[in-house]
Amino acid sequence: MVKNSSNPSEKSSNNLNVDYGEKKFKVLLVGYNGANNTGSEARLRVIISDLKELLGKNVEISIPTLNQENLRRYLKETETLKIVPLPSIYFLTLRKLVKEHDVVILVEGSCYMDTWTSALLWAFLWATKCAHDFKKLSLAYAVDAGKLSPLNKKLVQREASKTNLIITRNFESRKILKSAGVNAPIDVTADCAFEFKVDEADNNILNETWPEADNQLVGLSVVDFYLWPVVIRPWGRSEDKYRWPYYFSRSKKRDELREELANSWAQLLDHLIKEYNQNIALICMEDLDEPLARKILEKIQCPKKAKIFSSNKFNASEMTVILRKLNLLFTSRYHASVLSLAHQPPQIAIGHDNRLKILYKEMGIYDKYFVDYQDPDLWKKILKKAETLLKSPESMQSTLKTGYNEQLKRAQNNKTLLNEFIKKFLKREAMP
Questions:
Q1: Contact (CB, 8 A) for 349 and 375
Q2: Domain span at 107
Q3: Predicted structure pTM score
């Protein structure tokens, strides 16, 4: 089902009112690129579109990645868009890339946090430091801040303060960065994935892949809470390796908790299958979610009523169409919520970090529809909420619509701020 999505138009916008001549604006997009992650893919495609709309033929975009093959699934290289391999030990290569470009843009939403791994945070801070060393401009584009160890908090304070502009996708993240001592300019918008548009050709993807599930579909965007964080080790078990020298956190206790999680999800989903005649879409927003989804599928008593939809097979446009077709969404993934909201399927968050918590608070649904994954009454609470929403979806949809419209309006400011940022760069370049 995978296909390369069409590239955003290279038609130049008149917003900048600048005669570029032959000058090329060389941009390096640093993020979680090529990870088969639906949210990162959606963000990247929107950001590329924003740059091309503002700069047209005058922009040259480079995208570093640990996995070229994955990134090429949905991006085609052109004369103005290049995919650049990045080694696991990235410091020298990333520094060289920064030196060769005019501006560095941090494009990963989970930017200033170490929830998943410190290695990603360090890559973003290293790119910012290198930009500062080489007197290049740097921008963090609609990003989040969250949990930080004492060491990482000090690193963020020191290095993120060197950023020319930080745009956070919620007000809480700005507060977190300021409390950490970051003194760079900070503006607040919303996630750029709110502006993600599906490809028209994908609108029938669910009918093509699972026609019997249409109109009777509950989605579970699952996360294996017991894999994280990824840690740096010189060696480890091959089955725990993400990519050397990065290894998942595993232990006997974590394996037992993972098994309990799979059992509990299977029991809840079986109830919805039997009592409400629902089909179940096990939605893997990142291919790392697949092992847990497959474990759940093995435990479901009616496996023909369930199907896995993975970012390993379906691109962001196809996954977004599926998310918007649901009668109900259980999500532990931030972007499953974000990408579904244009059609307002009712949803319940089972959260493990600040991202969904903050989004739900901003939309006014936190108290009723967010449950922490460590809540001792987790399964009773989400079953009760699920039954209420399946019987009366309208009880939540109007609130979701209002929240979505507010988030979308804020997200549309991203391009305005990017426009202003580029103008400042051009003025700087024009100075003698």
A1: no
A2: 25-196+409-430
A3: 0.92
